[in-house]
Amino acid sequence: MFETETAIPETPSDCSQSGLIESTARELYQTAALFIGDANEATQLVEQTVASVEIDPCAETDAARTLASRDLVHRTLSRVAAKWPAQMHPAAAADLGGCVETDDLSATGVTREQLDSMISGVGRSRMRQWLEGLGPVERVVFVLRAVLGRSGPESTELLQEATSDAWTEAHVGGAYRAALCSLASSVVHATSH
């Protein structure tokens, strides 16, 4: 279950950006929930990130968000890798082939705007169900690539760091194409009903 609220208390500040910590926590929570799928774990990961990353509410907003996001991604990938070590191995990143032959989201028939709506708008519950049906590797790679916009090389490096395994861009690309193929199938199924 994904929620839009967090257990992170609002931090008062004299700065004009006083809502920075709260809004950052909400964004982090949505990201963690997309990766891990469990509301309690997502909340814990955000709380750990907020506690470990110094976010100055008077500092530049983008820099603070980037720092917190980077910490959360590393923290969440490590948690997913610890929970499902065999499924978060490069060998689990199979390219099923045939359905989607490119790493382009548009190959699924879904635009960036539609994806954004599926994540945080009307299609949110359908997106949650679809994500739950993915294996951990496909889910993580999809969130990294399609949702967060990380490149293949960046995603490969993040997975290498989180798992200490020899991930390659081919592994990441295969997992991403498998997720895109599943998304394309889900979209076709939803439009036919």
Can you offer a commentary on this structure?
By secondary structure, this protein is mainly α. The chain has two domains: 20-83, no CATH class; 90-191, no CATH class. 62% of the residues lie in helices and 0% in strands. The protein has helices at 20-36, 39-52, 61-83, 112-120, 124-133, 136-147, 152-163, 169-191. The longest helix has 23 residues, at 61-83.
Helix and strand layout, with pairings?
Elements: H1 20-36, H2 39-52, H3 61-83, H4 112-120, H5 124-133, H6 136-147, H7 152-163, H8 169-191
What's the short version?
By secondary structure, the protein is mostly helical. It has helices at 20-36, 39-52, 61-83, 112-120, 124-133, 136-147, 152-163, 169-191. Helices cover 62% and strands 0% of the residues.
Rg calc: 17 Å
User: Helical residue percent?
Assistant: 55-70%
Distance between the termini: 24 Å
Shape: globular
Characterize the largest beta sheet: strand count, sense, and whether it forms a barrel. none
Please identify the structural class as seen in this structure: mainly alpha
| Mean model confidence by pLDDT | 81
**Extended strand count:** 0
Q: Poorly predicted ranges (pLDDT <50, ≥5 residues)?
A: 1-9
Number of helices: 8
Strand content range: under 5%
One letter per element, helices H and strands E, the order comes to: HHHHHHHH
Number of domains: 2
